[in-house]
Amino acid sequence: MVKKLLGGTFTHYSNEKLKVMRNEKEIKKIVLLGASFTTRNLGVWALTSGAITSVLHSNPNVQVKLVDYHTEPLNYEIRHRTGRCYVQLINLRFSKKIWLPNNIALLILKALIIRAVPFQTIRSKFIARNFWLKQIKQADFVGSIAGGDSFSDIYGIARLIYVSLPQILTHLVGNNLVILPQTIGPFKSSLSKFIAFSILKRARKIYSRDRDSLKVVKDLLKGDNRNMEFCYDMAFVLEPILKSNRIPEWLLKSDKRIPIIGFNISGLLYMGGYTRQNMFGLKDDYRKIIHDLIKYMVEVHNAKIMLVPHVLGSVDNSESDVAACIEIYRQTKDELKEHLYVIEDEYDQHELKALIGYSDFFIGSRMHACIAALSQCIPAVGLAYSRKFRGVFESIGMEKTVIDLRTQNGKSVIATVNKIFQHRIEIKSQLEQKIPDARTAVLDLFNS
């Protein structure tokens, strides 16, 4: 089955400066774990696209495969500047149906049994007979993204186990694992720390997109930081691509003298987290903060507000940003609605980044929505519910534009946003100096 993404477009760069160490063989097969286009979270799509872009920049002829959970295998058609290629999804199952041949628990059990066989040649033959084990074992490079921030127990121990099992399987089949740039931790429970320690101590290389995560790893590994390194979030190299007929008419006709503020509303925060009881410990009511911010920016700055979802889904999906944006619009007073626009059509990660590019200023509760703005040198405020925001923003010198909703009340949020908005020209200039270096570092990641 070949599946075209909504926009169907990825970009990869030619590689005139490819550097291959004299005594190292060129990487030809790369497997990415925890990278997917099956989720409705465009942040994960952006990370996956960024990783593929980085891979193809350094290795134009490489074969990339995604290994992640899904009910069926898929082939994604990817268009790039010099042609087309396909990225295959090798699907695992996380299911009570233990008898399924690609059930992750069954594969781990088989890998454990094979690992107990004393002879290497026999072990290799057993692995070669299993399609899923063979894909991981025969890869020249296995890298884990873990959805960007799921290698943690912030979303619960079940999520951590979910993303950790394929990484454990990689070790059991005898291949090296590289932790690609992501947020690592926090790990609150003893079980979480044990799982993280077991994976990290065996990793060939550990990249983090923030300094705090490097400290978490260093503490877990008792000070051993030999294989640790910082690298920017891979979504910084996502290309904005949008056909003219996909641009909303109101945006094309917009008065350039009136500022456009892109505003990403998180459906997850809107519903109170997975527990629906202020799971992340926000100091004030998120819904009220959003309404008050919209009212303030319209009345004080005469701004147009573009509500930008970054997690797709129907109104029946409570975590959907689309549903939250629509609800916010419905509840907004009529006199403000003429300044308020909702992006309701489905756009892929490239298209949505291009739409965000029309903003003069951005406010977001989903970090990769903010990265879509920042990477285009658009001043952005991150309405944070975890430390991942500060770490990523800090990497490009923007830590002062992060507002921690766990510590600031609604009035403080509005005052801080207003202050940042007034300095947006200066901030844009700072981003224009920082972003090229971030992009270059990500594109060269697979050269290292």
TrEMBL record:
InterPro entries: Polysacch_pyruvyl_Trfase
Keyword Protease: no
Record domain Polysaccharide pyruvyl transferase: where: 107-386
Gene Ontology molecular function: transferase activity
One Pfam family it belongs to: PS_pyruv_trans
Record's keyword terms, sorted: Transferase
Keyword NAD part of the UniProt annotation: no
PANTHER family: COLANIC ACID BIOSYNTHESIS PROTEIN WCAK
Protein's recorded name: Polysaccharide pyruvyl transferase
Organism field: Candidatus Argoarchaeum ethanivorans
